[in-house]
Structure formats: C-alpha cells, structure tokens
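Thread: quick sanity check before group meeting

JM: Hey all, I'm pulling together slides for Thursday and realized we never actually wrote out the predicted structure for the chain we discussed last week. Dropping the sequence here so it's in one place. If anyone has concerns about the input, flag it before I start.
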Amino acid sequence: MRNNESKGWKRRSLLSTIPETALVGNIESTTVASANEDAPPEDRSFNSAQVQSILSDLDNPIVNEVTSKKEMNGGSILQYTKIKTNLGTVVYAEAENGTNGSHFSFHDVQNTSEIPSKYREIPEGTNPSLIGYESDTVFRRSATDQEINTLKQVTDIRDESDVITGSDINNFLIIEYNNSKIIG
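JM (edit): ok, ran it. Output follows.
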C-alpha cells in the first residue's frame, strides 16, 4: 500500500477513519420530506428508502440494534443513526435541512460467507461500501495498486489522487483536487 508521505496517511485506509460527521459530505445525498417527522429518529432512519435499499441489497441481514445521536457539524445539527446487523453497520445521517444519506462499509464484515455472493470477491484493501438511494443501492470501492498502475500507462494520475470504481461508474473515476476525470 502506498503512503502519501507529505500528508502522513494511507490513501486507501482514509475512508475507514473518516468520522461519522463526514458521512453527509462524503456520500451523495438526497432531500426527502419525512412522512412522519415526529417519529423517533431510529424509526425514521430504519424505515427510510435509502436504508431499506441497502438492507435489501444485503439480503435483509438480522438487525441487532438501532441507536441514534445528534452532533453539531459546522453550525448544523446532524442526526446519526447506526443500524447494527449481523453483517456490519448501516449509518444513516440526516441534516436539519432534510438532506440525508445512508452508507454501509464492508470493513467491519466478520463472516464473508454471510454476505451476498456478488460481494465475496472484492479485492482486499479497496474500502468497499454501499450507498443507499431511494430506489437503488450503489457499490463503490477504490482501485487496486495493479489497476492504478495500468491506468498510469494511459493517463496522468497524481499520487494524491483517489481512483474509484463502482456499479455506477464505467471503468474508473479519478478524483483530483478540484477536478475529476472519468476514464473509459
């Protein structure tokens, strides 16, 4: 795994260290008027289309616990709900303005034989995750070193760039500071 010497962090392990407060900014989110804004946040989150799309994509794992908390983030209040399952944790974030999003990271999956077969052959060290939308779930992962080396033969990639792929990306997306390139 390559290190970014100037920043002192490993690019591929960065996503697993991002705190929950970065979730809303990290994933594409939607704004949805809640059918029952007076419902407890745990119920609202669990019943959201975004969370249900992830749970469905994971073949409806056993839900062990649902917890919720509020945090201040840049002057706004964010409501976070963690839905712990036998496969891992789905995190749902909701901002005061109604923007919300859900995310599942495979980094805490203990028993890979329990996940759906389409996710069992994920390259190691690629920070795989699912992003829930109202009618779909998107799979994303970072590129392997071999994939990055292949891409470097056809395009310029800076060391600080992130290279990702996923079910909604044809081939690879290279993310640079203030720029994005779509390859393929």
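AS: nice. The radius of gyration is 17 Å. The first strand starts at residue 3 and ends at 4.
JM: adding both to the slides.
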